[in-house]
């Protein structure tokens, strides 16, 4: 059984209630996603940010509903800077 995008968002938001979660199905099969997560908490985290999100997704991974997740974790400031750079290019 595949997982729906809104279910992935809910799993992440249980751990990070105020996070903005953008979900992209990379294959169209519903088991391989790119998640872009923007959360205030990431401002003080390094690699721990991805660890926190992976822990939130663990139930779906262990149940076989999620095969792969490419995570992009940003603080609001990092996200804003990244998007400004995109507009300048």
Task: Give helix % range.
Answer: 40-55%
Amino- and carboxy-terminal Cα gap: 41 Å
Percentage of β-strand residues: 15-25%
Query: CATH homologous superfamily, by name?
Result: BolA-like
Using the alpha-carbon principal axes, give the shape: globular
Summed up, the domain count is: 1
Order of helices and strands: HEEHEH
**SS summary, helix count:** 3
Instruction: Tell me how many strands there are.
Output: 3
Largest sheet report: 3 strands, mixed
Query: What is the level 1 CATH name?
Result: Alpha Beta
Provide structural commentary.
The chain is an alpha+beta fold. The chain has one domain: BolA-like (GMP Synthetase, Chain A, domain 3). It contains 3 helices and 3 strands. Strand 2, helix 2 and strand 3 form a beta-alpha-beta unit. The longest helix has 15 residues, at about 50-60. The model has no long low-confidence stretch (mean pLDDT about 90).
Ordered list of secondary-structure elements with their pairings:
Blueprint: H1 5-15, E1 20-25, E2 32-38, H2 48-62, E3 68-74, H3 76-88
Helix pairs in contact: 1-2
Report a brief summary of the structure.
The model has no long low-confidence stretch (mean pLDDT 90). The protein contains three helices and three strands.
